[in-house]
Inverse folding.
């Protein structure tokens, strides 16, 4: 039997990149998966199609996790479709580089609304449905380890997320719900291509700092999340795993 057979997962921001890889990995392991997207319906539909073509179960649900009613609606849609909820992967996130002289209120609020508030709102909505054996996985960033220039606001959001992971691990432990984080290093995705990172001097510099000597791939992160979501990680909570090729 697949290790997630009979379980149901919501993956936020799953229309592309790391989120899409996570959704496919969880479905491969037997979970019914809700593929959340904010704006890319075509991308989410493509992920669902790939999952169902491989024999898995998935639906796409639109929702901006930084808005309370939409975060709530996302979770309710999952429960309506599959009858339960066991796994929440808070993957939705935005990143935007800005030197300190360029930081604005809009920049700060956009990053914190999605990367921090979105996690709180979605987890609040999910918590009422998660019971013993439930797992929450928050996707953080190895940016918190390297203190890269021009990422002050972004790195701050991920530092906040790490704190949230620790607090909620303790808060939800009496209900036997585990909460963990994964901190990817540089990963080759549509987003890092669009941001101009891949193929740039920044990529070369980041790879040079990576002991394993390469950028990550979405599947490198997805397999760690699949482990944390499963009962294989039943004694693991409150941890942040750096899936970063050795970056410290």
């Amino acid at each position: 039997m697949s290790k997630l057979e009979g379980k149901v997962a919501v993956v936020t921001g799953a229309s592309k990149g790391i989120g899409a890889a996570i959704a496919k990995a969880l479905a491969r392991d037997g979970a019914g998966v809700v593929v959340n997207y904010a704006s890319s319906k075509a991308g989410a539909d493509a992920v669902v199609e790939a999952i169902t073509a491989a024999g898995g179960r998935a639906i796409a649900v639109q929702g901006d996790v930084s808005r309370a009613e939409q975060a709530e609606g996302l979770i309710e849609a999952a429960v309506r479709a599959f009858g339960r909820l066991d796994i929440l992967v808070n993957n939705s996130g935005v990143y935007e580089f800005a030197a300190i002289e360029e930081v604005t209120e809009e920049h700060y609020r956009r990053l914190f609304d999605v990367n921090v508030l979105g996690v709180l709102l979605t987890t609040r909505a999910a918590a009422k449905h998660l019971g013993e054996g439930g797992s929450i996985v928050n996707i953080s960033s190895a940016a918190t380890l390297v203190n890269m220039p021009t990422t002050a606001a972004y790195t701050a959001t991920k530092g906040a997320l790490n704190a949230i992971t620790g607090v909620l691990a303790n808060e939800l432990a009496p209900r036997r719900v585990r909460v963990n984080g994964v901190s990817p290093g540089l990963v080759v995705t549509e987003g890092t291509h669009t941001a101009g990172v891949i193929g740039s001097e920044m990529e070369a510099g980041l790879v040079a700092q990576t002991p394993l000597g390469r950028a990550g791939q979405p599947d490198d992160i997805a397999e760690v999340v699949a482990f944390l979501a499963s009962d294989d990680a039943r004694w693991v909570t409150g941890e942040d795993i750096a899936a970063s090729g050795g970056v410290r």
Summary: The longest helix spans residues 105-127. The chain has a mean pLDDT of 96. The longest strand covers residues 178-184.
